[in-house]
Write a structure and sequence with these properties.
The chain has 21 helices and 13 strands. It is α+β, with helices and mostly antiparallel strands and 675 residues long. Helix 12 packs antiparallel against helix 13 and helix 12 crosses helix 17. The protein starts with a helix and ends in an 18-residue tail after the last helix. The structure holds flavin-adenine dinucleotide. Flavin-adenine dinucleotide (FAD) binds next to strand 1, strand 4 and helix 15. GO terms for molecular function: acyl-CoA oxidase activity; FAD binding; fatty acid binding. One of its GO terms (biological process) is lipid homeostasis. It comes from Euplotes crassus.
């Protein structure tokens, strides 16, 4: 069994790299594994649609390993734009995607393409701007008069940008200051930036690439303010690529990372555009200049306009977890080769992967990201159900879609950033080299915590929606998906005497925590005299812990359901169960304060010992498990490649880097038109 697993693994890796020449370390690590490689690979692959794997394969075929930064901002920007064109052309040529498929399923392309982030976060971000934000906004808020624009966006005839944030307001977009006055005589909108803080700022693609923009502004007709609306406008002359009259466009300048994205600012000075520029699905202006909307509340209109754009959050959630898995599993492979200090007993040098502290540092994280890997498949399923319900105000999944996209984006990107930082340290000095993937990933993972909704703001929004379910319990309204555990009874505080090395029992404990914290927080808010003040004060010790507790429970419940897919092989199921157990045990040890009413000190000590024993068991499996993940060899850092020859691979890079760059940018990439 064990040998045949190794052969299967080698077969798989041979596919990954044609001339694969595994090291001795590779053979030893794969010999350690007790799970059925084929079954595990099938089940893990099934967590993603086939097109995701096809996109990765297509991109892998045309890219070189690409983890180092360009020296100048201009070169980085040129490279990012070049690869967007080249990759889209390759995907269309191969028939993996068509422009119409992109228009029909922009979220799908966005998710697949974000999966290539380890090749370069700037490239996937450029796709996210063009497809996930620009094209998707036109699709979501536009009508038949905007249909041609979709095709132009999908074939890169137009490069677009998404202008929501202003210098003065990012998270609270209802306070945007840019104005769009409608002039019924000329049938035009007149755009203005009335203050310095109304300057649209941070806009990706704006500084030098985009010719068109989706712009959000306060719509004013005859002096009446109708709230924030989306508009599609031409911003640069398509022939000479200069800003149009009435616009001033600038560059946001140097950033702490992501130099390949040309972030820009724009100001409007009596800039005039025709009436069709209003993206008029939810609100329109009649020929005699009267405003009409099916949605009466300004806040609801805003939520509906921006709601389905949160698909970008799902893509970020997925890609951040992929990067965390790439970094943690890559570091584990390096650790399986790297030796430091002699063991006084054996007199042999110890591999870094064999130190218990290192099990705790990285295998606990690897386990969490594996559980999250299964989680994102479920989150995506929920998201697709929401999309099927349409983007209008009657979609019953709207609240839950906002909850799940907000909480998952915040929690995944936070712990991914921490994992990348730990992974960087795990590789010591070599972790600081740009050739080892970590350096270029960290700034992208940093930014992921802020854009598409600042994480702290998202946690508050998620908290409100969690508490809404508590209200539903008491008013007997249907609960949102994932809240089936919530009842009107606060769980009794009773000693928990079951074994703590069983995934079902651990799920019970995480359920008690989630349910109790939801009830306790709900009660504190209900009995507060000043609810606004109470909300603010309860955030650190009540609302955040409740939100984390809800999400940890969701992840483990989903993982327990996922384990059923591995029933056909006991060993494989055991190994995957261990990942879930480690995730839950670590979560419980980190939340000891809450569990002290349920577990004695003795139980807590025993739990920690069991966690360390489980980590030692997983140590034998983790390198093998890393070969199941949807990454290609080129997506790894030089020291964590699949052949496990870190020194040779790293030196190859260092020596090559001294020579001239061998990138050869052919300028004549053609995007096939879809007709
Ligand atoms: C590289 C980059 C690219 C970007 N690309 C685009 C783009 O293409 N298009 C676009 O429109 N925008 C873009 N943005 C803007 C981005 O979406 C915003 O920066 C983000 O939404 C946060 O808004 P803000 O910067 O105004 O921060 P703020 O909202 O001012 O937040 C600052 C801090 O205040 C905290 N805070 C805010 N509200 C509360 C509250 N109620 N309670 C407690 N704390 C709070 C936040 O948690 C945060 O820590 C980009 C930003 C960057 C850096």
């Amino acid at each position: 069994m064990i040998n045949s697993n190794r052969e299967k693994a080698i077969r798989r890796i041979t596919l990954l790299k044609k001339h694969f020449d595994p090291s001795e370390d590779f053979n030893r690590e794969l010999d350690n594994c007790t799970f059925d490689f084929d079954l595990a690979l099938r089940v893990v692959n099934d967590l993603r649609p086939k097109v995701h794997h096809q996109v990765i394969a297509a991109v892998d075929s045309i890219m070189k390993q690409n983890h180092f930064k360009e020296k100048s901002r201009e070169a980085a920007r040129f490279k990012a734009n070049y690869w967007v064109k080249k990759i889209l052309s390759e995907l269309y040529d191969r028939g993996v995607l068509t422009p119409h498929k992109v228009i029909d399923h922009p979220d799908l392309l966005n998710r697949c393409i974000m999966g290539i982030s380890p090749f370069g976060g700037e490239i996937s971000t450029k796709f996210a701007i063009q497809i996930g934000l620009y094209l998707k906004s036109i699709k979501n808020m536009g009508t038949e008069i905007h249909q041609d624009e979709l095709l132009r966006a999908a074939t890169l005839e137009d490069y677009g940008c998404f202008c929501l944030t202003e210098l003065g307001h990012g998270s609270d977009v209802s306070k945007l200051e840019t104005t769009a006055h409608f002039d019924p005589i000329s049938n035009q909108f007149i755009f203005n930036s009335p203050t310095e803080t109304s300057r649209k700022f941070w806009i990706g693609n704006l500084a030098s690439t985009a010719t068109k923009a989706v712009v959000f502004a306060q719509l004013i007709i005859n002096g009446v303010r109708h709230g924030v609306h989306g508009f599609l406008i031409q911003i640069r002359d398509p022939e000479i690529h200069e800003p149009l009259y009435g616009l001033t466009i600038g560059d946001c300048g140097d950033k702490i990372g992501m130099q390949g994205i040309d972030n820009g600012w724009i100001m409007f000075d009596n800039f005039k555009v025709g009436k069709n520029s209003l993206l008029n699905k939810y609100a329109d202006i009649s020929p005699d200049g009267v405003y009409t909307s099916t949605i009466t509340s300004k806040a609801k209109l805003m939520a509906v306009q921006l709601g389905s754009l949160s698909g970008g959050r799902i893509a970020i959630t997925q890609v951040s977890n992929d990067c965390a898995l790439a970094v943690s599993s890559g570091a584990l492979r390096y650790w399986a080769v790297r030796k430091q200090f002699k063991n006084p007993k054996t007199k042999k040098e110890t591999r870094l992967i064999d130190y218990s502290i290192n099990h705790y540092r990285l295998i606990t994280r690897f386990a969490r990201h594996f559980v999250q890997h299964a989680g994102i498949a479920k989150i995506t399923e929920f998201w697709d159900q929401f999309l099927q319900g349409g983007s209008g105000p009657d979609n019953k999944m709207t609240g839950f879609a906002h909850l799940i996209s907000s909480v998952s984006k915040a929690i995944y990107t936070w712990n991914t950033f921490d994992t990348c930082s730990e992974g960087r340290q795990a590789c010591g000095g070599l972790g600081f080299s740009s050739y080892n993937a970590l350096g270029s990933i960290i700034p992208v993972m940093d930014l992921n915590r802020t854009w598409e909704g600042d994480n702290n703001v998202l946690m508050q929004q998620a908290g409100k929606l969690i508490l809404q379910n508590l209200a539903y319990v008491f008013t007997e309204k249907p609960l949102m998906p994932t809240f089936e555990f919530l009842t009107s009874e606060i769980p009794l505080v009773t000693p928990f005497r079951k074994t703590l090395n069983d995934v079902t029992n651990l799920l019970k404990l995480l359920t008690i925590r989630a349910e109790t914290l939801i009830h306790q927080t709900g009660m504190k808010l209900q009995f507060a005299d000043d609810k606004v003040e109470a909300w603010d004060k309860l955030l650190p010790f009540n609302i955040y812990p409740m939100t984390f507790a809800y999400f940890d429970r969701f992840l483990l419940q989903n993982y327990v359901d996922f384990l059923a897919r591995l029933e056909e092989d006991e060993n494989t199921q055991k190994v995957f169960t261990l990942l879930g157990i480690v995730f839950a045990q670590k979560t419980i040890t980190e939340n000891g304060e809450f569990f002290k009413d349920y577990l004695t000190n003795g139980q807590m000590e025993e739990l920690k010992e069991t966690l360390m024993e489980n980590l030692a068991k997983l140590r034998k499996e983790v390198v093998g498990l890393s070969y199941l993940l949807p990454f290609t060899d080129k997506m790894q850092g030089a020291i964590s490649k699949f052949d496990m020859k870190p020194y040779k691979n790293f030196l190859d890079f260092v020596e090559k880097a001294e020579r001239k760059s061998d990138y050869n940018f052919d300028d004549d990439v053609v995007i096939p038109s879809c007709s």
